[in-house]
Amino acid sequence: MLSIEPTGAVLGATVHGLDLTRPLADADFAVVLRALGEHGVLRIPGQRIEARDLRDFSRRFGSIQGSVTGKFHHRDVPEVGILSNVVENGEPIGIADAGQDWHTDMSYTATKGFVNVLYAVKVPERDGRSLGDTLFANMHAAYEDLPAEIKARLAGMTARHDFNVFWENMRTRPGSARAPLTPEQRAKRPPAVHPVFMTHPITGRTVLYCNPGYAERILELPEAESREMLDFLFAHQLQAKYQYAHSWTVGDVLIWDHLGTLHNAIPDYGPQEERLMLRCQVMAESVFDPGFRHQWLRAA
Hints:
Elements (H helix, E strand, L loop, with lengths): L2 E4 L6 E4 L9 H14 L1 E4 L6 H8 L22 E4 L2 E2 L2 E2 L20 E10 L2 E2 L2 E2 L3 E5 H6 L3 H7 L3 E4 L1 H9 L11 H6 L3 E4 L1 E3 L6 E3 L6 E4 L4 H15 L5 E4 L6 E5 L3 E5 L10 E8 L6 H10 L1
Parallel strand pairs: 2-3
Antiparallel strand pairs: 1-2, 3-17, 4-19, 5-6, 7-17, 7-19, 8-9, 10-16, 10-18, 11-12, 11-15, 13-14
Helix pairs in contact: 1-8
Protein name: TauD/TfdA family dioxygenase
GO biological process, one term: sulfur compound metabolic process
Keywords: Dioxygenase, Iron, Metal-binding, Oxidoreductase
């Protein structure tokens, strides 16, 4: 029987009673969807699944985004990406996700990202402790705690999010093997503009939708004021009281809500300490559709 066990922290819950090798019942999906909005990060432990199972589960939340480079996806199930530091025959088999700093996936697209779904195949360990934790920050709580004058000032304002800013930041770090995006690749990911404050489609509450990985300018403010305000927002949203750390175990499937959280994977493991995750990135067309919300959130 499906049950939701909250962590008791600012984010996170464990989902018990799911076997993702089997189709997800409609009633169970409705419960998971509402729990995702409430808790932001959901862990489904003890899974032994194939790439197609991850794809099929992820599709319940919406359409799956492809890769801008066309690399590092599962050979037989291209909707599933590979996050890994594993090297075979001198070539990496996946893209590294650790060390990217705080961000929200796909805020750089006109259609926002909704969820990441990761399956832990290999988790590095040292001295009996798992490495490569993923940190999360709660953007419902971050908005609620903003000073009233900041809420009033920024109400209705928008921010520009740019994929290339993030890519260049990662590419120029020591040891990076990333190549610059080609003009064709950049054209596939033009900057996108989103409200700084957004109504969350599941909870109906306001969240701070502005992250240090991609947000580069508040368009309604002069450039200097925009930079000052972004620096304030980034410092505010990353306070320890809003953060939650997930420690990985092989067999974990982790779902997190991009609309209500930020995340940051910790690179505390070496190249010989192998990490391998399968990932689906789901876009937010469905969850913003009133018919989708009426069907699934009413049922929950």
